[in-house]
Write a structure and sequence with these properties.
- The chain has one helix and 19 strands.
- With 288 residues, it is mainly β.
- The chain has one domain: Jelly Rolls (Sandwich), CATH 2.60.120.200.
- Strands 1, 3, 4, 6, 14, 15, 16, 17 and 19 form a nine-stranded antiparallel beta sheet that branches. Strands 2-5-18-7-9-10-12-13 form an eight-stranded antiparallel beta sheet, with no helix packed on it. A two-stranded parallel ribbon has the order 8-11.
- A hairpin with a 4-residue loop joins strand 12 and strand 13.
- The longest helix has 23 residues.
- The C terminus is likely disordered.
- It binds calcium ion.
- Calcium ion binds next to loops.
């Protein structure tokens, strides 16, 4: 075979091998959407969104970099304004990260909202949910803590790991170890983009080895291990990850939460959007 052919073949092989290696490095990403390829209702783009009120809409130019972003409108009380992603695989442990912005419109964002809710798979009315929400109970809602259920077969929001490091655990529930904490309530209502990250793991059957970690703008505000966040009768897997969600006390003045650059992954995502297993940057294609 002529030397030129061999050289081209080696070049192609090396290029393919490089592509495969880079691709493998990003295999930890399970789902991502920067909303830049479409506008309107996100249904059909990997999401299951509110079709009844169409309160979840991808808006042109709304992102932090002028790209498209998802906007969820909160204009009523005790209704769901949601946008869900459901994994196609059984997901016991994962990271979810996104950018978000509060837009208070002509009001003061006076309503609480679920913001980010993780629903566990439901088996015969046994389930385990996790919530990071804007607190309903204050006139100017803020993030106060991560809530989940620590007892029973229908676990939702009865226990709270507060961002000041304290915890409120239901009677009879396992008290986790809180190794990382923030300084207290988090108020993102400054009209600027922020980043929210959650790492979650369901405990194995009969064990208390669940995990919760939360970062706000890259700063860790919660780190809890030894969590018991499901009963053995609940599947240890995620049903859906929901943006927006149940809200109340909005006070008659609609407000909006924008979301962008959503990534669900099996390892923590770096600020550049890559997973924490970085793609090699020093690869070159050579031939002899
Ligand atoms: Ca975008």
């Amino acid at each position: 075979m002529p030397k030129q052919f061999i050289t081209i073949r080696r070049l192609l092989f090396t290029a393919l091998a490089t592509l495969c290696f880079v691709s493998t490095s990003y295999a930890a990403t399970l789902f991502q959407d920067n909303f830049n390829s479409y506008t309107g209702n996100p249904n059909g783009h990997g999401w299951n969104a509110d079709n009844l009120w169409n309160t979840a809409q991808v808006v042109s130019g709304a992102g932090s970099d002028g790209s498209n972003a998802l906007r969820i409108t909160f204009d009523a009380d005790q209704l769901n304004r949601w946008c869900d992603w459901s994994p196609s695989q059984n997901l016991q442990e994962f990271y979810v990260k996104f950018d978000f912005k509060m837009d208070c419109g002509s009001g003061t964002c006076a309503g609480g909202a679920k913001f980010l809710k993780i629903f566990g798979q439901n088996a015969s009315s046994s389930y385990a949910n996790t919530t990071t929400a804007f607190d309903y109970g204050t006139p100017s809602p803020v993030f106060t803590g991560l809530s989940y259920g620590a007892t029973g077969n229908q676990r939702d929001t009865a226990s709270v790991l507060w961002y000041d490091g304290s915890k409120t655990i239901e009677s009879g529930g396992v008290s986790p170890t809180v190794a990382a904490k923030g300084t207290g309530n988090i108020d993102p209502k400054d009209g600027k983009w922020h980043t929210w990250e959650v790492h979650m793991k369901y405990n194995d059957d009969g064990q208390s080895n669940g995990i919760y970690e939360v970062w706000y703008d890259g700063v860790q505000v919660l780190g809890a291990t030894g969590v018991n966040n499901r009963s053995t009768s609940s599947p240890p897997y995620v049903q859906s990850i929901q943006l927006g969600g149940w809200n109340q006390n909005y006070g008659g003045k609609p407000y909006y939460i924008y979301y962008d650059n959503v990534v669900v992954s099996t390892t923590r995502v770096t600020s550049s959007g890559a997973t924490s297993l970085p793609a090699p940057s020093n690869l070159t294609v050579t031939s002899k």
